[in-house]
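for the writeup, i need someone to sanity check this before i put it in the appendix. the sequnce is what the collaborator sent (i think, or maybe the updated version? ugh). structure was predicted straight from it, no edits. if anything looks off just tell me and ill rerun, i have time this weekend
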Amino acid sequence: MRARSVLGTLIIASLVGSVAPSFSAPAPKAGAACKKVGVTQTYKSKVFTCKKSGKKLVWSKGKAIKQAAPIPVATPSPTPTTSDSPSPSPSPSASPTPTSSPTPTPSPSPTIVGAAQALQQFKDAIIQGTRCDVKKDLDRFALGLDRYKNPSYVRCLNNGFWEAVPAPAIPTEYQPRVNLSDFNSITYPWKTPCDRDPWVPTQWREYEQFALKYFGCSRPFRFVDVSLPSTKPSTALTPTSQLQPISVCKLPNKNVKNVRGNYHNIGHDGRWKFTGDFAIQVVPVQFTDFKAANSPKEEYGKYLDYMKEMFFKISDGNSRIEMRVPDAYIQVNAALESFDTGQTFAKNNKFSWKKLDTPRYQNAIFTAADPSINFTGIDLTIILVPLSVPDNYIGHGGGFRMDFVRTNEGVIQSNYIMPPANANSDNDWYGVEPFLHLHEMFHATGLLSDHLGDWEIGGDFYGTGFWGHMSGMLTDFIAWDKWLAGMMLDSQIICGSSTATGTYWIKPATYFGKHEKLLVIPLSETKAIAIESQRAGGMNFKLTKESEGALLYTVDVMDTRYDGGFEVIKPKNRTSSTLEGPFIFWDAPMKLNESIEIWGYRITVVEAGAFGDVVKVEKI
């Protein structure tokens, strides 16, 4: 799993080397150790840079930030504001004007910014944590919003992100806000997939604040239902009689290893899928040194409910999970501390955990659980520990996994080791973030692989960017991954012609319903072109207009690049750099009359609307 703030447990070898989200880092100190040359960090009005000193990497003495001149804000004409509803973010008020006169001077009346102007300021604001183009904007100051949507100055740092920085007082005329009563979940002026959600479910409200503070992102805690409209496209479509058999589009998995020796799961195979009615057995265990204060449902109920509901929704009802949860934690007659080998293992130069003796740990858990749990028909378990377990025990790494565990009822092929869902620090990321667990379930089962590319390890390949839960963990799974995992049925796939010109209607991938959501043009048994329609809705309800349209990516089961197999292709007329904007490839979807030429084909959007996209495919 990998993710970043702008826009991420059974751990398998394919995860080694992946990165976690950007978190709040410890305050830099001149001469103290740092981890990567060139990284900067702002602290107490100074910018510290990580540099090489001999054989060590240390922080510089720090360079004072130049105070930017006040940025002018257009003063609007007076607008009545009596109808405005309370804003989701506080608006700034003017401070009294300092004076040396002994005679008291009345404070100026606060500037009143009308609702329309305030909304426009909100729409124009740059958000802390979004990407900037360092070639154009390095060290540029701008008015914007912090991650809580409060007015702030932001600055483009050389790490490629806009960050909130100390600066002059915010102009009193700058009052970006949104009147919530004027919007709903789809029409709200979202700016990034990480935006704070004004309608966040009650059970996740407190955690959202924690996530914004430590992970810089509020990922989707809910699914927004959008129905396919009755309006249909008027373009003549290729008849179903001219489509190819679905078997032609099912590229078989070739079990190819990438450049780092990890297997990619890109093609189809006969393994167990996340489809139909199936049960996941929860195995909650406690130890002599760490006992539970409450029942498993009281401690993890909202997480288990979230997994069950989200898998049902994002699969159009194809994945129907029964969560089997014991009423109480099962006692392991040993101390968790007793499994500690005295070693540690780390991940991404950020996280570190005690290295447990996995075979002994596994044996102790299932020896205790087997007498009281019937594992008949179970292909996947979730191993839970009490919230009293510290966050440095249950790790996230390739060497800590349980596969093909034998029980009295048979062999369980996959087991998801979930870290405790505590909210104490950024080290709790792998347990406390609910959206992450949807991603990790597919690493636990081995059904899906990451496809973020190699750009974070020095390469120039971006995979699917931040499109797809297995790539950046900001958006819903791409349709190919859903099909691969069994969340999307064969009947929802349009297997187009690879020789004749065809015109096809693709329904939005984000709308709930068993519609045709993925167009596949097979080129061979190892390569295909895939197109899906993206609209705001579902778990992608925060998409902006720039991110709506026909998303095209190539599929190559023989691709050996790191985190490869898929590659999003964007129209050539896009001027933004890859690492600029709300997330990587945010503007890649094709709009009406736009085309992409790839692998000897031209794909053009000939009609678009709330119903999705109609694309024409021509061989050139």
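The CA atoms of residues 83 and 288 lie 60 Å apart. Confidence is low (pLDDT under 50) at residues 1-25, 66-105.
thx in advance!!
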